[in-house]
Amino acid sequence: MSETPLRRALQARHLTMIAIGGTIGAGLFVGSGPVIASAGPAAILSYVAGGVIVILAMRMIGEMAVLQPTPGGIADWPRRALGGWAGFTTGWLYWYSWIVVIAFEAVAAGEIVATWIDVPSGFVAPVLLLGILLANLTHVRAFGEMEY
Q: A Pfam family in this protein (predicted)?
């Protein structure tokens, strides 16, 4: 089996918009309303504190990616540092977290779209999930353009 070399098919504008969309997401708009209504201005402070923690974590991940660039980065770094069990566990937890996030984002986006058109959000969410799946099955450059 021959390995194909990795190539950079995404441009900086693709990565920037993917990062912004992944950070904000539909869930923030749907989920933050009730939190702000019940907690008031303290919710904004907690969002800022959480944002600082996420920025620091992303900076650390960026440093690891520059120091040890590997195709399986998220699971490969713990495997190298702690052993096979850590890489296996991290890889599955990473996969599981994205499955939950994608489902939540589809439901939240379905709620938003349901306010625009007279269609129940339960019908919109599977259509959005199918769109996400089709976008991910395309070539990387096409995926980047769709995300942009």
A: AA_permease
Q: Are 91 and 72 in contact (CB under 8 A)?
A: yes
Give the tokens for residue 108: 């939240």
Q: How far is CA 91 from the centre of its chain?
A: 15
Question: Which residues make Cβ contacts (< 8 Å) with residue 54, sequence separation at least 6?
Answer: 23
pLDDT tens digits, one per residue of 25-69 = 666 777 788 888 888 888 888 888 988 998 898 898 888 888 888
Token pair of 13, please?
């504008």
Domain ranges of the chain: 25-147
Closest CA to 110 of 95, 96, 120, 100: 120
Phi-psi region of 118 (alpha: psi -120 to 50; beta: other; left: phi over 0): beta
- Look at residues 128, 92, 106, 127 and name the one whose alpha carbon lies nearest to residue 30: 106
- Short-list 102, 97, 77, CA closest to 87: 77
Q: Position 46: which residue type?
A: S
Residue 40 gets the label, from left (phi > 0), alpha (psi -120 to 50) or beta, of: left
pTM exceeds 0.85 for this model: no
